[in-house]
Every structure is written in structure tokens, then in C-alpha cells.
Specification:
This protein has seven helices and seven strands; from the N terminus they run H-H-E-H-E-H-E-H-E-H-E-E-H-E. It is an alpha/beta fold. The protein has a single domain, classed as Rossmann fold. It has a seven-stranded mixed β-sheet, with helices on both faces. Strand 6, helix 7 and strand 7 form a beta-alpha-beta unit. Helix 2 crosses helix 3 and helix 4 packs parallel to helix 5. The longest helix is centred in the first third of the chain and has 17 residues. The chain is globular, with a radius of gyration of 15 Å. It starts with a helix and ends with a strand. About 30% of the residues are buried. About 10% of the residues have low confidence.
Length: about 180
């Protein structure tokens, strides 16, 4: 079963198209698969997500963490104060997954999150294109043509430059690299 899921994910990520398994939005499984491919040695990640999103995605998140063999520490946030408290709890050199939401993509919140991630050398992986363009390490999103797109931003993540070789960038199916 796991082999079928991995093959389906590889095909979906490589082709950049939706299939019957996936809706228009990026799923937790797709996002965690990207994390596992980029950071195979990491066994834990922190998730920043609104309460509403978590209630909607809880089952999918739990299932995806089991399938990808990743321990997820959930931080439910509603604004910049919650984000600040959550990021204080995240260890240096960790991976943080941020789900796109209106509350988290406000410019002031975005700049705060990115500055704290840079300060603590946290690798930020997100479904938010504004975060990807502003400095998140990896961004997985659907573009206007409903095509799955991966953005790698090394300009603001120099500490990860050595990890992302040409071979890994190709393996991940990165569409755009910001240097």
C-alpha cells in the first residue's frame, strides 16, 4: 500500500497535475512527502496552522504523518502573538510547515515569521506563495493553471544551499529556484 501511495505522489509531483486522489488544494500528504524527500534524515516537524484549518484537515494530517513516518508537533495559531509563542518553542535547525491562511499571510506576520526562521536557521516549508517568494525555503502550491508548483528559495536560506544539489532539485521537481 505504501508503495502505491509513494508512486502516486511521485507521479503527481513530477507531472504537476491533479489526479483523482487530490483536490485543487495541496494536501498534507503531498506537503509532507516533499519534506521527507528534501529532508530524509528528519523525523520531526512543527506545523503552524489555524484552528479552523486543523479541524478541517486533522484526519489528513494524522494519516500523512503516519504514512511519511514523521512526528508532527501542531501549533494552532490565530495571529502574530500565537505565532511568536509557537516559534519560541521550535528548536533551532528544525523544519516548520506553515499552512496558507489569511491570518498567517498578513505582511507583518509573514516578515516576523521569516525573520525568526532565519534567526533560528529553521527551514520553512509552506503552501503559501507569498511566503515562498518572500523567503520560505520550499513552497508547494497550485498555480493559476491548477498545476502543482514547487518554489525553492535559497536566497534567504544560505544555510541549506549545500543540501539542495542539482540532483535533489531535479528529484523534487522544483519549478523555480530563487538564488
Amino acid at each position: 500500500m505504501m508503495k502505491k501511495v509513494v508512486i502516486a505522489l511521485c507521479l503527481t509531483l513530477a507531472c504537476g497535475s491533479s489526479s483523482i486522489l487530490f483536490g485543487k488544494d495541496v494536501t498534507p500528504l503531498q506537503l509532507f512527502f516533499l519534506v521527507k524527500q528534501a529532508f530524509p534524515d528528519k523525523q520531526e516537524l512543527a506545523i503552524l496552522i489555524t484552528k479552523e484549518q486543523y479541524e478541517e484537515q486533522e484526519t489528513k494530517i494524522k494519516r500523512a504523518t503516519v504514512q511519511m513516518k514523521i512526528k508532527a508537533i501542531i501549533h494552532m495559531v490565530s495571529g502574530s502573538k500565537d505565532v511568536g509563542r509557537a516559534l519560541q518553542k521550535v528548536a533551532d535547525n528544525a523544519i516548520v510547515v506553515l499552512f496558507d491562511s489569511e491570518a498567517l499571510t498578513k505582511q507583518a506576520t509573514r516578515l516576523y515569521v521569516l525573520s525568526k526562521c532565519k534567526e533560528k536557521r529553521i527551514s520553512l516549508v509552506t503552501t503559501s506563495k507569498p511566503y515562498g517568494e518572500s523567503g520560505a525555503l520550499l513552497c508547494l502550491y497550485n498555480d493559476k493553471a491548477d498545476k502543482l508548483t514547487i518554489l525553492l528559495n535559497l536566497k534567504k536560506n544560505l544555510h541549506e544551499k549545500g543540501r539542495f544539489t542539482d540532483a535533489l532539485v531535479q528529484k523534487l521537481g522544483v519549478s523555480e529556484v530563487v538564488m
